[in-house]
Specification:
160 residues, alpha+beta, Tetrahydropterin Synthase, Chain A, 2 domains, 4-stranded antiparallel sheet, 5 helices, 4 strands, 48% helix, cell membrane, cell projection
Length: 160
């Protein structure tokens, strides 16, 4: 055999194992990557996991119908309003339910002082929400903690 043929045979004999090793390494890396992706677990620590928010506590009140004051002393101005209170906890809801006549009395007094022209605007309704939160904040009876009202949600609002 010629020297050229021997060198060619030697290159081929070295080339085949090298290609075989490179192919084996590439397949191993690809297999490991697929295995890692398939068996990927949630590796976030417990402190970083987001806890779902607590279920909201709502307290629905019956609708209120009150006469409103206005500059013309027109007694035909009537407000028919219903709302639901969003409370911080179940204990506040229970306390408000136990003293419901006191809660309704405070709200009736507040609603009867409202001005019809003010309530016709969006800012008037937002101001009413703030006033409701303020009037319900003091304790219902001595020795109790103050009430917290997170939000006031209107369920009915008719101004006539």
């Amino acid at each position: 055999m010629s020297d050229n043929a021997k060198a060619k045979g030697r290159k081929r004999s070295i080339l085949v194992p090298v290609l075989l090793v490179v192919t084996l390494v590439a397949c191993s890396v690809a297999g490991y990557a697929v295995w890692r992706m398939m068996n990927k677990t949630d590796e976030t620590p417990e402190a970083e996991k987001v806890t779902p928010p607590a279920a909201p506590v709502f307290f629905a009140l019956d609708t209120f119908t009150v006469n409103l004051v206005n500059a013309d002393n027109d007694f035909d101005r009537v407000l028919y309003v219903g709302f639901t209170l969003r409370l911080p906890d179940e204990e506040t809801r229970r306390r408000m339910n136990d003293y419901l006549p006191e809660v309704r009395s405070r709200l009736l007094l507040l609603l009867s002082r409202q001005d019809a022209t003010t309530l016709a605007k969006e800012q008037g309704k937002q101001a009413l929400v703030a006033q409701i939160k303020q009037v319900l904040a003091p304790p219902l009876v001595k020795g109790q903690p103050p009430q917290g009202v997170n939000d006031v949600l209107f369920t009915a609002f008719i101004l006539r």
